[in-house]
Amino acid sequence: MLARLFGFFAAVVCLHLSAAIAADGEALRFSIRGKPVVELSMAELKQKAPVTGITVWEPHEDKNVTYEGFEIGRLFAAVYGDKWREIDEVLFTCVDGYQPVLPMDRFSRLAGYLVYKRQDQAVFNVQNRFQNEKDVPLGPFYLVWDNLKSDALRAEGANGWPYQVVGIDLVNFVDRFPRLSPPADASAQAKKGFVAFRENCMACHSVNGEGGDKAPELNYPVSVTEYVPEPWLRKWIMDPRAIRYNATMPAFASHPDPDTLIDDVLAYLRTMAGHKQKPE
């Protein structure tokens, strides 16, 4: 009986938490290169862009889910005008400080949607099978991609699907993260690895103090390539749970060509090992 009561109260707390995040963070902040442009409420967003339904293969739950939200290209055009196509990257800020950065080219090539509601359930949350987390709140906004007809997008899993989004900033990457960028004379492979690192790693990891703060710094004062033998580092990147039980880092093994991707990322990290800068 006590167990049932505990489960009931836990569910109530989770529902209230999800509602609180949606209510407190409903306004969405838009910036360019860190300078505020506008902050829009849900009602104002609906005036800027039409609400649409989109059915996607939800990677967290391995099933089709229909959401409601805004086609993000149309939303960008309504907020930024033509300027949004002239910037290199889109930086998302989430409730917990998670800051994924996605290349602008992705938004030009693919159909992304900033959604705020699931049509199959009242609560806007997800069951995150990758990190064994249940009832994860998605609000106020969640970026999803039209992946039903794209094998390549489905192979990416949940990469590039930030949730609890509260801010969007259009940035030129080198301006915002100069210590994270490889030197101009870096090899072509290191530069490819830099792109792969930005898309797959920097939301959680930092290099020279720039990037995410949810996982360890990888370059300063000692590069991870200098204290972890490469065979183990490669195995860790390929499948963290093969080394550490219940590791939350996503595995590169799900990528179409993980070995090449890992080669490129390691080339970038080895290059940055020779360009250490003290974090500010």
Would you summarize the structure shown here?
By secondary structure, this protein is of the alpha+beta class. It contains 10 helices and 13 strands.
Overall description:
31% of the residues are buried. The protein is built from 10 helices and 13 strands. It is 34% helix and 24% strand. A hairpin with a 2-residue loop joins strand 12 and strand 13 (210-211). The strands form 4 sheets. A 5-stranded mixed β-sheet has the order 2-1-11-5-6. A 4-stranded antiparallel β-sheet has the order 3-4-7-10. Helix 7 crosses helix 10. The chain is an alpha+beta fold and 280 residues long. Mean pLDDT is 88; it is low at 1-25.
| Low-confidence runs | 1-25
Question: Between the first and last Cα atoms, what is the distance in angstroms?
Answer: 53 Å
Average pLDDT, rounded to a whole number, is: 88
DSSP helix count?
A: 10
Helix content: 25-40%
User: Strand count, sense and closure of the main sheet?
Assistant: 5 strands, mixed
> How many β-strand runs?
13
Strand content: 15-25%
Radius of gyration: 20 Å
What is the structural class? alpha+beta
Order of helices and strands: HEEHEEHEEHEEEEHEHHEEHHH
Q: What coarse outline follows from CA principal-axis ratios?
A: globular
Strands of the widest sheet, in order across it, are: 2-1-11-5-6
Key features of this structure:
280 residues; alpha+beta; 5-stranded mixed sheet; 24% strand; disordered N terminus
Topology readout:
Blueprint: H1 2-24, E1 28-32, E2 35-40, H2 42-48, E3 51-58, E4 63-71, H3 72-80, E5 89-94, E6 101-103, H4 104-109, E7 112-118, E8 125-128, E9 133-137, E10 142-145, H5 151-155, E11 165-171, H6 173-176, H7 188-200, E12 206-207, E13 210-211, H8 224-227, H9 230-238, H10 258-273
Parallel strand pairs: 1-11
Antiparallel strand pairs: 1-2, 3-4, 4-7, 5-6, 5-11, 7-10, 8-9, 12-13
